[in-house]
Amino acid sequence: MQAQPGRRPSSTIENRRADFPALQQMVNGHPLVYLDSAASSQMPAAVIDTIANYQRQDHANVHRGVHTLSHRATDAYEGARDKIRAFVNAASRSEIVLTSGTTESINLVAQSYCRPLLRAGDSVLISHLEHHSNIVPWQLLCEQTGAVLCVVPIDNAGQLDMQALTTMLDDSVRFIALAHVSNALGSINPVKDIISLARQKDVPVLLDGAQGVPHMAIDVQDLDCDFYAFSGHKMLGPTGVGVLYGREFLLDAMPPYQGGGDMILEVSFSGTTYNELPYKFEAGTPNISGVVGLGAAVDYLQSIGMHEVQRHEQELLAYLMDELQKIPGIRLIGTAAQKASVQSFMLDDIHPHDLGTILDHQGIAIRTGHHCAMPVMQRFGLPGTARASLSLYNNRDDIDRLVAALLQAKQIFS
What we know:
By secondary structure, the protein is an alpha/beta fold. Helix content is 37%, strand content 17%. It folds into two domains: 136 residues, Alpha-Beta Complex (Aspartate Aminotransferase, domain 1); 252 residues, Type I PLP-dependent aspartate aminotransferase-like (Major domain) (Aspartate Aminotransferase, domain 2, 3-Layer(aba) Sandwich). The strands form five sheets. Strands 4-10-9-8-7-5-6 form a seven-stranded mixed sheet, sandwiched between helices. The chain has a four-stranded antiparallel sheet with strand order 13-14-17-16, with helices on one face. β7, α6 and β8 form a beta-alpha-beta unit. α1 packs antiparallel against α9 and α2 crosses α9. It is globular.
């Protein structure tokens, strides 16, 4: 399926803003400045059009029909899987399991891979940087198995304490689950170094890539991780769709996570024969339009190149941090040496929610609160922060307007 005529992506990243219909609107009488992409990125017209075209022309259930629309839907759905496989350089399409998002992907691994493996006295290693979706599934797992959840500390810059991690990686550790990039602080973890350490102990590693995939080129074979989870709505795609990459031999040995249609080959009352990978983990009618839209988002990102996306965002992040630090009373939360384009901050003693409301009145969308990372906020002794997160469609004007609005907020509260 092709985007409608006249909706081609712009040729250079500087002009990409024009590809995003939502960014062309006024909010509270001001042109929208969208700085909340870490929560959910906007979709380009090419993705919106692809989803609409599927709904208008090709909507049918996948894998099960012999009629033309079902064939079209199946081709689009499985074509998206192939695009995703190439995007993260998985060795096989069988290693790409389509889920509802990062959260389901992590829960799938916790319950299907780890639960049969863990015993009382074993431990799972996570970090103090994690999103709730990479904490709670492991807490549930530990309650179910008697295993212990161990947490690697972070320093005042929001970086992992690698010495502590090395010490904690003892013979009790059976699994490691870490964020590739912190959603609250933007810290990029040294995951290749961590995976190398884990390999020496034969400990499998899952990476929460929800904030990694949108901002940098991901090569799961180069990372050498065992599992990698990410979501469509962080990477210019629709909500309700995501991916679990898993090594084929691991996925093949895992029992199904859910039972139902499409994950079976044969069913009788005496037993069931499960489908082959990756369908063994895809029970029920999937989010077909969401997967098709995610495939279009991959096409869009590939048309730019992830190295170009990262270059653009890193330049903007440096400008954002420099400009924020010029504001009297600003405090940057999260100053790791290696960061993605996310910056949390506090301004004087203004509550983040008040700050977000004032900025919204000027058409500026930021995120305020604990960002589903309460332990991070507790580590810094804060109830929450204001967070500006960038994407490829942002520019310096967005940052200038943010800074000007923060200065106005400072005057209001003074």
